[in-house]
Amino acid sequence: MSTGATPRHAATPATIAQGPAVRMTGIVKRFGAVTANIDASLVVTPGEIHAVVGENGAGKSTLLRVLSGMFAPDAGTVELFGRDVTGWSTAQAIAAGVGMVHQHFMLVPTLSVAENVVLGIEPVRGLRFDRDAAERRLATLARECGLACEPGRLVRDLSVGEAQRVEILKTLYRGAKLLILDEPTAVLSPPEVDELWRVLRTLRAGGATIVLVTHKLDELMDVTDHITVMRAGRTVGALVTARTTPAAIATAMVGRAVQLDASGLPVGAAASHDTTGTPSRVSTQAFTGPAVGTPTPAYADTPRLALHDLVVAGPRRARAVDGVTLAVAPGEVLGIAGVEGNGQTELVEAIAGLREVLGGRVLVDGTDVTRFSVGKRLRHGITHIPEDRHARGLVLDYSIADNLILGRQRHYARSGRIDRTRVRRFAEERIAAFDIRPADPDLPARALSGGNQQKVVVAREMPADFRVLVASQPTRGVDVGAIEFIHDQLRAARRAGKAILLVSAELNEILALSDRIAVMYGGRVVHEVARAHATAESLGPYMTGAAA
Amino acid sequence: MRATRAFEEAVLPTLTALLVALVAGDLLILSYGQAPGEVWAMMLRGTWGNAYGIGQLLYKATTLTFTGLAVAVGLRAGLFNIGAESQLAAGGFCAALVGLALPAAVGPWIAVPLCIVAAAIGGGLVGLVPGVLRARFGAHEVIATIMLNFVVLAFLNWAMASGGLAVPETLHTTAAPHAAVPRLASVFAAFHGSAANFVIVLAILVAALTGWFLFRTRYGFELRAVGLQPAAAENGGIRVARTWLMAMIVSGALAGMGGTNFVLGYKSYYEDGFAGGAGFLGIAVALVGRNHPLGVVLAALFFATLSQGGLAIHALVPKQMVEVLEGVVILAVAMSVPEVRRLLRARPRDPSPPAPVTSGAANTSAAPALADG
């Protein structure tokens, strides 16, 4: 690294002794029932580029919004250069030189670059807005910071990368010494990302401190000085970039060590609790070595579920799924591993019929279902446990019973009228079978705990006669007991000859349940391997794109 | 425990709103130098205190029940139908046209049902337009129904004036007495002179039927699921766009049937402007009635009482006072009712799940939102 006036290893203990720029400790932030941060911490050295990494929902953005004054923490302290600023407002943060560049730009498209930058603190001559002074000042600032910009251009004519630079200039114009960037690379093309890194290095050379959020690791190695790893709302690691590897970061991110050591998720335990007599496929050591006694699924001539060169558009990318070909045999669990946001959601929604397929085909037992509606797919035996149970999985204001028949209301209606007696009988049977508590079919789904809500979804999506289950994050945000229960259900379905496509951000879950594992990166399957030959370490590089 | 919960969620906000309105009314009355107790008593005497008053408020409540049900069905599907006013007018217009087209010889037992069907179709067609715009193109139904009010009311005005339908020198068509629904006074003599008529029976039947449709049939099950959580409904194989379209048609048809109260039950002709705001007041009726048919009927009675009571207290305070009270009730309810807060929130045009609070990049759109975040 030749650009930086501040050397890469700036954050030696000696520098820290001078006092960190930011010290956040024991941060807790809750939104209703959701805990976004729990005992999260962050220490940033002056003059460094510091990355906060973690998967979606790990609490990165929340932590930085606490720092920028957008949220007041429920517990914990925030210190800026040794001063306690816990619970300050954004205005105070800006006054203290802390500026946040948001993921969604907050610019007025019809105004010029200069007008946007000075908006709110415009230079005036008399009562008139002094446009010349604004443009002059901006040009000076841009020259000082080494950021190219054309003050007179309209923001609507700018590319995404240029608009982001305007956002950065806006915070600098307000005197920011500490820049917070929330997912700055998410909207950028690769050349724009390179340009952003150049800009950030220049700013660092000028003495600025930069904190950025990302969940893309591969790019960070030669830009950042320190990396804070977050997982499930907690800070689980503080790494010196020069002394780590993408694989090590990935491991910390997906939380192998954390899971086994701290929270003790029952991935290993589930296998030993498996009372049905399947050979124990996973032991606590299984993550480092091939599983023993894994029954090989019977490969039929036609797979239960086959995807041929599937192409699906996503909200951000035209080809979020970019030519995926996969097959799942009866009695097989195919696990899709990968860092979130690499096309898994779009893949799942395309199979469920919720997202338009741009190219390729989806086959179930040899039948082309690519053009089937969601309802027709349901009747064809394709079920889906959605990743977001609050939005897609449940109608929260409907009762447990109504949620259990959602999608099958037709079967419970005689000439249009829903047979409440039959619904109730069915609900009571499912509630008992899935141990949903409280066992009251009339209770609204909203009143249940996360684990019991998820059991309602699983109970509905695993009827006796389904053929293919697409399970997306089936145990996210669910308590340990429910995880175990849901895993047992998935194993039982596998034994019954169902085909299961399992998508999970929990690498442990993938390793514990799958017969084969496919790794998605950038919308493609970059690696496909039998479970017996996979470990968290061997999959890591593929998940970060390093080995693709 | 569940009964308590239902009370807290459904009844309490409404009662609070009414209490707020009562206090506001007291202050208004005091500002006119009158005694609140006396004015309220006068209002009660002029409405529930005599048969004529009851008859008049029942007549008004009948129309409001239809428009309130129309708005309620829309809201249950997650749609805010502001077009009940023009749907009501179109329903009345179609009922009158069919009544006039039928020969006098057919008699009311055939003419009246045909006119009711015509009113439903007329209102349903006006509801169909924003339904299609929403289902096919994602156009917001609030904008579409507001704009359609102007279009439809202007069209009806034009048809009356230039289409030669109006009796010269008036704004109404000729009467079709063979399609008349008898007044309540023809059975209960005490109602003599009031406009109350047997369309009220239709209103009660339709309210009961709407309740059955919403809460007992699978179509109602699907409609409510779409209204509460379109993404979950879609995941259950329910066709969200089609449900929206169906809901708008049903909503329009309900409002349209309200037109029969004036056209068949009162005047036996269509008169330009007969809706007179009853469609808009239907929004308030639905909100205060918490989108439940029983609540709608009660709220319709309440607003009809206010409207008729305004006339009764005119000697002491201006009758516009009740309009202020209506506004206060609507505001108070709007602030306390969760459905309204949900509707006022920004809504995506397709039924994709909303952004989770803590997620980072999951919901970034392809083009960055430059205006806001």
Taking all Cα atoms into account, the compactness measure Rg of chain B is: 22 Å
- Secondary-structure class of chain B: mainly alpha
Helical content of chain A stands at 25-40%
Helix content of chain B: 55-70%
Oligomeric composition of the shown chains = heterodimer
Looking at the structure, what is the overall shape of chain A?
elongated
Strand order of the largest sheet of chain A: 6-9-10-3-11-12
Arithmetic mean of pLDDT of chain A: 83
3D structure, described in words:
- The complex is a heterodimer of chains A (548) and B (373).
- Chain A folds into four domains: 1-97 and 178-192 and 202-244, P-loop containing nucleotide triphosphate hydrolases (Rossmann fold); 107-176, no CATH class; 267-381 and 466-543, Rossmann fold; 395-461, no CATH class.
- In chain A, 32% of the residues lie in helices and 23% in strands.
- Chain A contains 19 helices and 24 strands.
- In chain A, β16 and β17 form a beta hairpin.
- Chain B has a single domain (9-344), classed as ABC transporter involved in vitamin B12 uptake, BtuC, CATH 1.10.3470.
- Helices cover 68% and strands 0% of the residues of chain B.
- Chain B contains 14 helices and no strands.
Keywords:
heterodimer, A: 548 residues, alpha/beta, Rossmann fold, 6-stranded mixed beta sheet, 19 helices, 24 strands, B: 373 residues, mainly alpha, ABC transporter involved in vitamin B12 uptake, BtuC, 14 helices, 0% strand, disordered C terminus
Itemize the secondary structure elements and their pairings:
The complex is a heterodimer of chains A (548) and B (373).
Chain A: H1 13-17, E1 22-31, E2 34-44, E3 49-53, H2 60-67, E4 75-80, E5 83-84, H3 90-95, E6 98-101, H4 113-118, E7 124-125, E8 128-129, H5 131-145, H6 160-173, E9 178-181, H7 190-205, E10 209-214, E11 226-231, E12 234-240, H8 246-254, H9 256-263, H10 267-273, E13 305-312, E14 321-328, E15 332-337, H11 344-352, E16 357-364, E17 367-368, H12 374-379, E18 382-385, H13 389-393, H14 400-405, E19 413-414, E20 417-418, H15 420-433, H16 450-461, E21 468-472, H17 480-495, E22 499-503, H18 507-513, E23 516-521, E24 524-530, H19 536-543
Parallel strand pairs in A: 3-10, 3-11, 6-9, 9-10, 15-22, 15-23, 18-21, 21-22
Antiparallel strand pairs in A: 1-2, 1-4, 4-5, 7-8, 11-12, 13-14, 13-16, 16-17, 19-20, 23-24
Chain B: H1 2-31, H2 36-47, H3 51-76, H4 84-101, H5 108-137, H6 141-161, H7 199-216, H8 218-228, H9 230-235, H10 240-267, H11 278-288, H12 293-312, H13 320-336, H14 338-344
